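Late entry, written up from scratch paper. The run itself happened at the end of the previous shift, but nothing got recorded in the book at the time, so transcribing now.
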Amino acid sequence: MQGAGALEKIRTDRLTVRRFTAADGDALHGYLSQPEAVRFEPYGVQTRLQCHELALDREGDEAFWAVCRAGDERLIGNLYLHRDDPRTYTLGYVFDPAQWGQGYATEAATALLDVCFRSWGAHRVIARCSPENTRSWRLLERLGMRREELPQLHDAYQYAVLEDEWSAGSVDRRVRRGLAGGPSR
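Output as recorded:
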């Protein structure tokens, strides 16, 4: 990703969005071992060993971001932001069900998308989710993304937001105000 390798951490009022480390395996297992957390993911419940392997893999993968509570630095979820072509990215996320409903996913994704559009030169960010995953598509709509039409054979919703839409403030301003700390190295 353009500039992504240099960026190690993004801080908001309540969160730290940082690179994964090999030490994150147990914390990953804390939520990836829960059926509710992975219900709509392309993989099933993960074992402790699988989570330690994932932590190692993600440590070197610029697309994966660990989301931690700022106070105790506890890992509560992860974001995925993959560069598909020079100016298009795909967003994904999984959070600990115990943390759902507190605005953490919205806050973390907003912070990362701000960096993506403002620093990395993204033109478009897309995300896909199951039509049954109401929490996910509502999150995407809170982020200012709009649902796109897909051929009827697809069993997923696709959402997108363009650079000019993001810059114009289509995302909820209350969320943006929570981005106090901004990026750090």
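The helical segments are 25-32, 35-38, 48-59, 104-118, 134-142, 163-167, 173-177.
(Scratch paper discarded after transcription.)
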